[in-house]
Design a protein that fits this description.
With 126 residues, the protein is α+β, with helices and mostly antiparallel strands. The chain has three helices and five strands. A hairpin with a 5-residue loop joins strand 2 and strand 3. The radius of gyration is 21 Å and the shape is globular. Its EC number is 3.6.1.7. This is Acylphosphatase.
Amino acid sequence: MCPLPSLAAAVAASRTPLRLLGRGLAAMSAARRLKSVDYEVFGRVQGVCFRMYTEDEARKIGVVGWVKNTSKGTVTGQVQGPEEKVNSMMSWLSKVGSPSSRIDRTNFSNEKTISQLDYSNFSIRY
């Protein structure tokens, strides 16, 4: 009997947790990285409860910031939070919106990493 196959199996098995741990650490650091982004949504986004649905979705996802109507018929605001959650909110603002809305396009600007949140919740501004 040769002990090498069992030794090789033991070495391979000991490497697996390290690989998984490495992925976990990368995901954890991405989750801890805070991101801020400004947005403006174009289309049929006023008079369709877009701000209310945006506030609700932001709270569900777990991001902070604000949303408001503009005088030019768009909706604008800012989202802050863990990078992955902000990315989820950006996707929602681009593709979903309120049930009666029609999103033609969403512009994102001032996308940056931040060291701390500027807001404690998500609110509708007037």
